[in-house]
Fold this protein.
Amino acid sequence: MELELEWLGRVGYREAWAYQHRLVAERAAGSIGDRLLLLEHPPVLTLGRHATAAHVRATREELEARGIELIQVERGGDVTYHGPGQLVAYPIVNLSEAGLFVRPFVRALEAAMSDTAASYGVIAGRRDAYPGCWCDPDSAAPRKLGALGLKVERGVTYHGIALNITTRLDDFELIDPCGLAGIAVTSIAQEAGWSGTSAEPSTASVSVAAGRFGHALIQRLGERVVVNGEGVARATTPAAAA
């Protein structure tokens, strides 16, 4: 089984959403192989298919004033914030061809987020009944580091994960993250104690994390990434293959 990594840089949400739909159709038809889209979005809020707008704290007028769009999508989960400094990964994977069920695939995504955090010296893990990636998940005050919301259509996955690298955490005050009021949200930068410009939202920090996450997922799934028969990652930037 082969997984192609594609680093897209900063891409508008609707553009990436349309691209996912196109790739899902192509993957279901067998015209392309499995692919992992790695990217960053400008500020946007998305609502999962069972989400309620009550978990958005800001009014539409406030969001418009800040240039943040609110979009209802077909993934699982509740409300999520995407923005600069956050790694977003969208796996376009045919589960049946990979011999995978949804739950193990979700666990692999969660574990790959934790592995990525560990590569920065940040300890994180899964929290029972709360999908995603958490710091101190079993404590009285867990901190959410990454979100997860998946959709499977014609046996092919899309949507995926969002992992905070150098994300501006104040923007999470606009929502009850994943519908959970009062939870703390954190980032790699905050947990690792980065300061100054290294802690500011940047596409460069996301591109490095993209490579780490992509290869962590490959290892968790027992897959390999192949280009022209060679065991190397296919990517559009060196960082995505780091």
